[in-house]
Write a structure and sequence with these properties.
Length: 207
């Protein structure tokens, strides 16, 4: 991480955040866990980023370290209960979006509006939806991407090499438009298998 530069990871159209101090803080967070970043975000002003596997609370520290160190604004949905003082202002400043789990349909509609109302908007989603082992991913991120007309970009964590991979676009807008709505679960399953074969979580028992 220390040997790379921002341009190695961050494209021109990325939404930006922070300054030299926050980038230093982000590098410090990643350094404390011994993690490095490989790859580069897609040069898209709007997209959904999925990250896997989600097996530990340490994932949040690595995510915050990545956001701050690279100076990218990545919005992320968190349960609204997490937005309490003194962390509420911090999460919102970083791009946190309170999620009311009691109304998933309303949350989807609000998310699509965010894409339509912002010139640049990256939204990170954890398709597993939990730190526990899962045999199926929730396909909501595909439905959101389809309705918002934005691609899906994959990020992956490998605790064996302590690397966060900025991998690639795994579903472009044509992949989403040219397939029937009911195929979302099948598309999500292919991505789940891809992530399971390539990445490895911090807490192996939850892989």
């Amino acid at each position: 991480m220390l040997m790379s530069t921002l341009t190695d990871h961050v494209p021109e159209q990325a939404p930006r955040i922070g300054n030299a101090f926050t980038r230093f803080l982000g590098r410090l967070l990643l350094g404390l866990r011994g993690y490095k970043i490989e790859g580069k975000f897609a040069n898209e002003p709007k997209m959904i980023l999925i990250a896997a596997p989600h097996t530990s609370n340490w994932d949040l520290i690595i995510a915050l370290g990545t956001i701050l160190s690279l100076g990218v604004r990545i919005n992320f949905m968190m349960k609204k209960e997490a937005f309490f003082f003194p962390l509420k202002g911090f999460f919102i400043a970083l791009g946190g979006v309170p999620l009311d789990r009691s109304s998933p349909k309303k949350a989807v509609v609000q998310t699509i509006k965010q894409f339509r109302n912002n010139e640049k908007f990256w939204l990170a989603i954890l398709p597993e939806g939990t730190r526990k082992p899962v045999d199926i991913w929730k396909a909501g991120f595909i439905r959101i991407a389809r309705n918002a007309n934005v691609p899906v970009f994959m990020m992956g964590l490998d605790s064996r090499t302590k690397t966060l991979y900025l991998d690639k676009i795994v579903l472009n807008t044509q992949d989403l438009k040219n397939k029937p709505a009911g195929i979302a679960i099948e598309q999500a399953e292919k991505l789940r298998i891809y992530a399971k074969e390539k990445y490895y979580g911090i807490n192996p028992k939850n892989n």
